[in-house]
Design a protein that fits this description.
Blueprint: E1 2-6, H1 10-20, E2 26-31, H2 35-42, E3 48-50, H3 53-59, E4 64-67, H4 76-84, E5 87-90, H5 98-111, E6 114-117, H6 125-134, E7 143-149, H7 161-164, H8 167-170, H9 173-183, E8 186-194, E9 209-216, E10 221-227, E11 241-247, E12 252-256, E13 261-266, E14 270-273, H10 280-294, H11 304-322, E15 329-330
Helix pairs in contact: 1-10, 3-4, 4-5, 5-11, 6-9, 9-11
């Protein structure tokens, strides 16, 4: 299977490392505006480089494309890919605009493109365990609490609200998506945000911190807190770093860290650690490429429409915080 990659950022390296381990998967081309970085990524695998993704799509005979770009650069490339390749994997979030996402979705549906969105945590053993437990009779998820309080990521686009959508849209989207995957769709959110503490950072227009309340269609509830202000990230402090707690009548599951290491708590004494996945990008990418080869989406855990629903939830939180002064906002999909 011949693969093209669009984007040369940090996550591109993770995907390429995973793809090297997948039999019969060959990355033949990498496209990116940072030509030096593209050549660094392409050299070890003998791939061609392109400064323009459209040139890559027209010149190469590709089976699948990985779009690994910031939120504001999505849209036209997805529509172009729908005309040239059978399958597309898109890093999250799929856009910073729901209108753009709807237009892209129509292109994919018209072309019959097989699409996977890079919510790799859906494939983790810990998240699959939660989904299994919460699907048991009388054991649905009732309450979740998630937090993502880490240092500001270095890319310039990330600190620009119109490019990234802010931390809740760009990073905490993982927490929201895990909750949606295991507890069902969120129908309403309310949020507050604060800014003005990151005085030393130039061209900074995202929020320093945000708190979000969410109500699920099932009646379940969740709270999320996010912050990019810490110096050092506060990874070990309570409420710092990355974590998510989810509870039902019979279980409480704790997830911690970027790898979402999980423990199932049943009653007061029983604790069951969940095995950690060795390389979640390998698991996700292999499932995607198998789906493309078989022409079936059954093995893909996050469809494009799933990505749209998670995006709609995070954008609604931004609307509540910025335009509604904390007033509830219905999640419009």
């Amino acid at each position: 299977m011949k693969i093209g990659v669009i984007g040369t950022g940090w996550v591109a390296g993770l995907h390429l490392d995973a793809l090297r381990q997948i039999e019969d998967a060959e990355v033949v081309a990498i496209a990116g505006r940072n030509e030096t970085r593209a050549k660094e990524l392409a050299l070890p695998i003998g791939a061609k480089t392109y400064s323009e993704p459209l040139s890559m799509l027209r010149s190469e005979s590709l089976d699948a494309v990985f779009i690994l770009l910031p939120p504001h650069l999505h849209g036209d490339l997805e529509r172009a890919c729908s005309e040239h390749v059978k399958g597309v994997l898109i890093e999250k979030p799929i856009s910073q605009s729901l209108e753009t996402a709807h237009a892209v979705n129509e292109s994919f549906k018209k072309a019959g493109t097989i699409v996977s969105v890079g919510y790799m945590n859906r494939y983790r053993l810990s998240v699959q365990k939660i989904r299994e437990l919460f699907s048991q009779p009388e054991n649905e998820g009732i309450l979740a609490h998630g937090w993502w309080t880490t240092q500001m990521p270095p890319p310039l686009w990330w600190r620009t609200f119109d490019h990234s959508g802010g931390q809740f849209v760009e990073q905490c989207t993982h927490l929201v998506d895990i909750c949606r995957y295991t507890m069902g769709d969120i129908e309403e959110v309310s949020a507050y945000s604060t800014c003005g503490y990151m005085k030393e950072v130039s061209d900074f227009s995202v929020d320093d911190a945000m708190v979000v309340n969410a109500r699920f269609a099932s009646g379940a509830l969740a709270t999320f807190s996010t912050g990019c202000f810490p110096l050092g990230g506060h990874p070990e402090s309570p409420g710092g770093g990355i974590g998510l707690n989810l509870s039902s009548r019979n279980h409480r599951i704790t997830l911690s860290g970027w790898n979402f290491e999980g423990t199932v708590h049943s009653g007061e004494e029983t604790r069951e650690p969940i095995p950690v996945d060795e390389n979640i990008f390998y698991v996700q990418n292999k499932a995607f490429l198998e789906a493309v080869a078989q022409g079936s989406t059954s093995g893909i855990h996050s469809s494009y429409e799933d990505g749209m629903k998670t995006l709609a939830t995070t954008l609604a939180a931004n609307e509540s915080a910025r335009n509604q002064n904390g007033s509830p906002v219905r999640v419009a999909f």
